[in-house]
């Protein structure tokens, strides 16, 4: 049942602002109560591969995303974090880049916690937000284990990467993919065995990692080229940790 912003705010008027903080345990519990997917092409399942061996940290993806989607200054749907990593065996130091964005999970914890169903998952796997329906409660922001959501400072509603779904539907690439000078980002249909993304993932199968696979969110952003030294350095950082297993998600169906 859809609930308008006005109706929700009316019902919540007698509740203090402090109540709009959901315990993480409650947010995680919603994982097993996913509502039906709607919209999108049910024959497709979009995913993104990011080849860290090709990323040079130029932030062209960050800039092009900001131009395309117009988030407030200082807020980003995608960004590249840079780390200085030292290999303990060789004592050599190198810069490592880590692009961050919404992981478009198969079990997105952000979706079932929304009290007004303003965020949902399409049949093609992309998680979207209806800014007109969202009441800005922040439940989805707290529920996301990847720190990929935020409350837009200007609109006061939830915001995040949606793979530039408006561009995909027009036959275009997401802004970040189109602008990547190193060709590090690859988006495609995981249900198509002949798609470019499937070829890349299959060719690098033993070197593919995802964020927090043990949470069973089944993220569909895949990282290639992660070194052991880098994994050790970022272990435990908020929104980050990797595992050599990737949960059998490649080629997943919706």
TrEMBL record:
UniProt key word Metal-binding: yes
Pfam families found in the cross-reference section: Fer4_11 (PF13247)
InterPro entries named in the record: 4Fe4S_Fe-S-bd, 4Fe4S_Fe_S_CS, DsrO-like, ET_IronSulfur_Cluster-Binding, TAT_signal
Superkingdom, natural source: Bacteria
Record's keyword terms, sorted: 4Fe-4S, Iron, Iron-sulfur, Metal-binding
Molecular functions per Gene Ontology: 4 iron, 4 sulfur cluster binding; metal ion binding
CDD domains associated with the record: PsrB
Sequence ranges assigned to domain 4Fe-4S ferredoxin-type in this UniProt record: 46-75, 125-154
Designated name of the protein: Tetrathionate reductase beta subunit
């Amino acid at each position: 049942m859809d609930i308008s912003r006005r109706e929700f705010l009316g019902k919540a008027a007698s509740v203090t602002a402090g109540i709009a903080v959901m315990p993480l345990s409650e947010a995680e519990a919603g994982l097993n109560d996913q509502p039906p997917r709607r919209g999108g092409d049910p024959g497709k399942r979009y995913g993104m591969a990011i080849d860290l061996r090709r990323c040079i940290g130029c932030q062209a993806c960050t800039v092009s995303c900001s131009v395309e989607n117009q988030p407030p200054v200082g807020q980003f749907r995608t960004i590249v974090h840079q780390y200085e990593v030292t290999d303990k065996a060789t004592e050599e130091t190198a810069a490592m880049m880590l692009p961050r964005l919404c992981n478009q999970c198969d079990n997105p914890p952000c979706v079932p916690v929304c009290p007004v169903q303003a965020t949902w998952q399409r049949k093609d796997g992309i998680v979207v937000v209806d800014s007109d329906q969202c009441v800005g409660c922040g439940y989805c922001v707290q529920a996301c284990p990847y720190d990929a959501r935020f409350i837009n400072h200007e609109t006061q509603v939830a915001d995040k990467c949606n793979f530039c779904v408006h561009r995909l539907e027009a036959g275009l690439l997401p802004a970040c993919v189109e602008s990547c000078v190193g060709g590090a980002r690859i988006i495609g249909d995981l249900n198509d065995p002949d798609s470019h993304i499937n070829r890349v993932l299959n060719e690098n199968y033993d070197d593919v990692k995802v964020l927090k696979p043990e949470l069973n969110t089944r993220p569909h952003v895949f990282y290639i080229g992660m070194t052991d030294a880098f994994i050790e350095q970022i272990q435990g950082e908020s929104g980050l940790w990797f595992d050599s297993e990737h949960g059998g998600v490649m080629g997943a169906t919706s």
